[in-house]
Design brief:
The complex is a heterodimer of chains A (341) and B (347).
Chain A lengths: L3 E6 L3 H13 L3 E7 L25 H19 L4 H4 L1 E10 L15 E5 L2 H4 L7 E10 L1 H14 L3 E4 L14 E4 L5 H4 L6 E11 L5 E5 L5 E4 L4 E4 L3 E2 L8 H14 L7 E12 L4 E9 L2 E9 L5 H24 L1 H4 L3
Helix pairs in contact in A: 1-5, 1-8, 2-8
Chain B lengths: L1 E5 L3 H14 L7 E6 L7 H4 L15 H17 L4 H4 L1 E10 L13 E5 L2 H4 L7 E10 L1 H14 L3 E4 L5 H6 L4 E4 L15 E11 L5 E5 L11 E4 L4 E4 L3 E2 L8 H14 L7 E12 L4 E9 L2 E9 L5 H22 L11
Parallel strand pairs in B: 1-2, 1-7, 2-6, 3-9, 7-15
Antiparallel strand pairs in B: 3-5, 4-5, 8-11, 8-12, 8-13, 9-10, 10-11, 14-15
Classes of the chains: A alpha/beta (341), B alpha/beta (347).
GO molecular function, one term (chain A): FAD binding
Keywords (chain A): Cytoplasm, FAD, Flavoprotein, Oxidoreductase, Peroxisome
Catalytic activity (chain A): D-aspartate + O2 + H2O = oxaloacetate + H2O2 + NH4(+); D-glutamate + O2 + H2O = 2-oxoglutarate + H2O2 + NH4(+)
Chain lengths: 341, 347
Amino acid sequence: MDPVRIAVVGAGVVGLSTAMCVSKLVPGCSITVISDKFTPDTTSDVAAGMLIPHVYADTPIPKQKQWFRETFDHLFAIASSAEAEDAGVHLVSGWQIFRSVPTEEVPFWADVVLGFRKMTEAELKKFPQHVFGHAFTTLKCESPTYLPWLEKRLKGSGVLILTRRIGDLWELHPSFDIVVNCSGLGSRQLAGDSKIFPVRGQVLRVQAPWVKHFIRDGSGLTYIYPGISNVILGGTRQKGDWNLSPDAEISRDIFSRCCALEPSLHGACDIREKVGLRPFRPGLRLQTELLAQDGRRLPVVHHYGHGSGGISVHWGTALEAASLVGECVRALRTPSSKSKL
Amino acid sequence: MRVVVIGAGVIGLSTALCIHERYHSVLPSLDVRVYADRFTPFTNSNVAAGLCQAYLSDPSNPQEVHWNQQTFDYLLSHIHSPNAANMGLALISGYNLFREDFPDPSWKDTVLGFRKLTCRELDMFPDYSYGWFNTSLIVEGRRYLPWLTERLTERGVKFFQQKVESFEEVARGGADVIINCTGVWAGALQPDPLLKPGRGQIIKVDAPWMKHFILTHDPEKGIYQSPYIIPGIQAVTLGGIFQLGNWSEVNNIQDHNTIWEGCCRLEPTLKDAKIIAELTGLRPVRPQIRLEREQLRFGSLNTEVIHNYGHGGYGLTIHWGCALEAAKLLGKILEERELLRMPPPHL
């Protein structure tokens, strides 16, 4: 039986992890990852990669919890292994603080992270403007390290990697039998989806190795995320803004907000600015679409629209996408399909 | 009034600073000097990882619990300042691991967020079945000692590099009060059979993904003889050596292997970490800290000595509380000599 030829469009965390899941779970396929951008130039590379979920309006909470749990467990195993340094995954503890008590005092993901509890009075003294907080241990998954590690493993599994800009999904026909669309914001064009739009995020990458804890201000607009080679300070949420150039005024504002939470950051050095466009959508799109045009058919599994939460749920959604791909493969292999080939 | 501090580790420098801060404005004639043969980065305080954590069992001197608390509170108050990193200060959270249930320590309310470990957390450490999680502080000698030195220099305190052979020599040189912060070598100035070296060896590695301390405890082996991993500002300290009575200041290959194997077993991610340095230090071990006055007489010369040594492996943890106590003792001396006018009791 000839292998089913699968094209994964997009090489951010979603594209690469989906390719990985498909290669592991769907037998009899040959996979090619196609993208115009690869690490370190993807949107994922700008994200700090903290495993703290974003809430997807259209998806039931139990499903979101499942995605998060699957991602957390998967990365936790990596963080505890000798691969941790190469994969760029590690544990980090810290605080999520609020200026007023939130309506939901215990978020749905509290029992997925480690050691979740409310902050004590003594701990809150560090943040005089805040009255409530959560303390927990979670994971950080740094794309500039994680994506190259994934790419290496993909190549080791026989997955091909191709640099090419795709303007239309039909370009992949007839070279490929199934397309997995992980193009994030690119889906505006590739899937004709006007529901997806950028939410611009600007961050600072600084050297401040004495910062060992994350601090996230309730809404998530201001945050300090210590990583392996830098600390990420953020951020912004600018809807509909496509500008990828850093804004100096915004950088000053981010720095000032973060220093208010962690005064020792005044001693930070080697400050660099980065901008990423979060692929925002009212709901995460994880579904199969059978494209048809002039007698041609092309099954597409859409897997995009992760907004702020891509890294937090990537493995869980990739597993689900792989399962959808598996269904497409089975559909292609049933006798009625064969007669059309 | 000349006060000579002997010793320039964390105890000597912090005591000198505490004294100067407290008395210089009320006693302008106060002249504080530091004599030492070793300065940063060659002191034992430079070898220590600097994690603020007292021993697990209650100290024989209950005052030490209070001094630990005072030190923690003092350092915590500086954590919020922009200077924290220059002082070598950082908040750090982490794990204390045991092979069986263990009673809560006296310092559980001093540190932040003290709690027991959950099952999932314990799953990370297959050799251990019980433990604690809490947030504490590190104070790194590598940055703290230079910071203390700068503060002292700003205040006009002078430093003299010399090996002091006797209290008498310092007294005859003009010291009215001597503060003995000579640590593990105090016995050279005055024999003290209670003071012994607790030799420690550590490996410093580059492992910036480590954000938590991990301390293991084995009641059969005793303190510091079970692997520990303590991330610092730039490097991670790996340790687990404590040899009572060993004066060797040279790194030992067997100890290296003990540390490396123990720590890699505890934390497999360290396997490929790059080794940056390896150091040996001598903890000044004593059943309790010697922090007291002694009057010495050399012919017609009456000299006050305040001893402040014997801080074992918890010198950085307890230093400020001891400095405050030493300053209090100096205050009594100054009162006795009627140098300090204390307000009359009826006010």
